[in-house]
Amino acid sequence: MTALLSNKFEFLSKDVKTRTGLILGPEKAYLVDSRLGPLARKEGFASVEALVDAMMRGDRKMCVAASEALATHETFFFRDKTPFDLFEKTIMPSLKTARPGRPMKIWCAAASSGQEPYSLGMILDEAGERGADILATDMSAQVLEKAKAGVYTQFEVQRGLPIQKLVKHFEQVGETWKVKPHIRQRVRFEQGNLLDDFSRYGKMDVIFCRNVLIYFDIDTKAKVLDRLANQLSDDGFLLLGAAETVVGLTDSLRPVPGHRGLYAKPETAAKAAAA
Amino acid sequence: MKTCLVVDDSRVIRKVARKIVEDIGFAVEEAADGQQALDACKKAMPDAVLLDWNMPVMNGLDFLIKLRKEPNGTKPVVVFCTTENDMSHITQALRAGADEYVMKPFDGDIIESKFAETGLV
């Protein structure tokens, strides 16, 4: 373990926060070695410290790469299950009845290596839903590459993915499993950072933004939530991670009573509660 | 307490699997081949069977086909757990009445997630 000098650690956490919103507090110092070590080696630096020196000299490419490496990309198919059940049994039917014929617009903000949008794609496919559009964004070019390819290890397809869905929606390629085209073509991938303007995506009916806000400070959480609310259609729904909430951070969104992790604009939340 | 029959000809795998399945709250019995497993099921139908494919005497697939024809033989949730990891084996297992399928190597998370998938936990 090579502890960085405090001025270097300070520079690193400030730079990462500006680029990604991620808070790299002293208690996360252990991540520096475990996540930047491989990057430093790959890029030919003698140590993590040498990598940070290059960043301090203004090496923009390394700054971006370091931010991406420090972010947590942990995900798996149908992670936490409940949000996907909610989508299938509550959100999808309610949006369909409310507005027949209008295709649903879904956004996976921070989609990581693609398991979340592909899980939604499988649900839509099995429901015979043709028109829906899934946009999947992530700030990391590297994980997006993997997401677009749709190729997963044997280990990855066994976490959360029912065997029937593996058989139906994947093909075996050597030791790996590739998402079949009928699911892949349902998802559009785009590089995008939640700190940047995302109004160009247009209004969304369903936004999955799970396990991202936990890494932000309160101020950043509040700002991102306000902007997500702006992006949400009036009768749309936002899904957050189990450890995240809008409460105390924004007035533009409310929890939907009875559904943990589900949020909507105040009127829609009130209507859902009355229903 | 729910019961699970762990069927594998490797004593080491049975030991590892037993620990994982016990940790998620099952009482575990063991069998070293398909015939032993079938005898155990005839005596007492378990709630779940964690089933290897390649075993001496009677393999996992033949066991499964026979099990499903037994009175009450549709009751156990059967989860294959095998090194056979190609699509044709998987579809063959599902057609024979398997509920889930684990490709070795496995860990506790995978077993737990598959058991959850089938409503066992």
**What string gives the helices and strands of chain B in order?**
EHEHEHEHEH
The CATH superfamily of the largest domain in chain A is Vaccinia Virus protein VP39
From the N-terminal CA to the C-terminal CA of chain A, the straight-line distance is 56 Å
What share of residues are in beta strands of chain A?
Answer: 15-25%
Order of helices and strands of chain A: HHHHHEHEHEHEEHEEHEEEH
* Domain tally of chain A: 2
Using the alpha-carbon principal axes, give the shape of chain A: globular
- Radius of gyration from the alpha-carbon trace of chain A, in angstroms: 20 Å
The helix-and-strand class of chain A reads alpha/beta
* Spatial arrangement of strands, main beta sheet of chain B: 2-1-3-4-5
The shape of chain B, in one word, is globular
Number of domains of chain B: 1
Average of pLDDT of chain B: 96
Q: Helix tally of chain B?
A: 5
Main sheet specs of chain A: 7 strands, mixed
Summary?
By secondary structure, chain A is of the alpha/beta class.
Q: Could you please describe the fold and organization of this structure?
A:
The complex is a heterodimer of chains A (275) and B (121). Chain A is α/β, with parallel strands linked by helices and 275 residues long. Chain A has 2 domains: 6-70, no CATH class; 82-274, 3-Layer(aba) Sandwich (Rossmann fold), CATH 3.40.50. Chain A is built from 11 helices and 10 strands. Chain A has helices at residues 6-20, 29-42, 48-56, 60-70, 82-98, 115-126, 141-149, 163-169, 181-184, 218-231, 266-274; strands spanning 105-109, 133-138, 151-152, 170-173, 176-179, 187-191, 204-209, 232-240, 254-255, 262-264. A 7-stranded mixed beta sheet of chain A has the order 6-2-1-7-8-10-9. Chain A has a 3-stranded antiparallel beta sheet with strand order 3-5-4. The longest helix of chain A has 17 residues, at 82-98. The radius of gyration of chain A is 20 Å and the shape is globular. The model of chain A has no long low-confidence stretch (mean pLDDT 93). With 121 residues, chain B is α/β, with parallel strands linked by helices. Chain B has one domain: Rossmann fold (3-Layer(aba) Sandwich). Chain B has helices at residues 11-23, 34-43, 60-69, 87-95, 108-117, and strands at 2-7, 26-31, 48-51, 77-82, 100-103. Chain B has a 5-stranded parallel beta sheet with strand order 2-1-3-4-5, sandwiched between helices. In chain B, α2 packs parallel to α3. The longest helix of chain B has 13 residues, at 11-23.
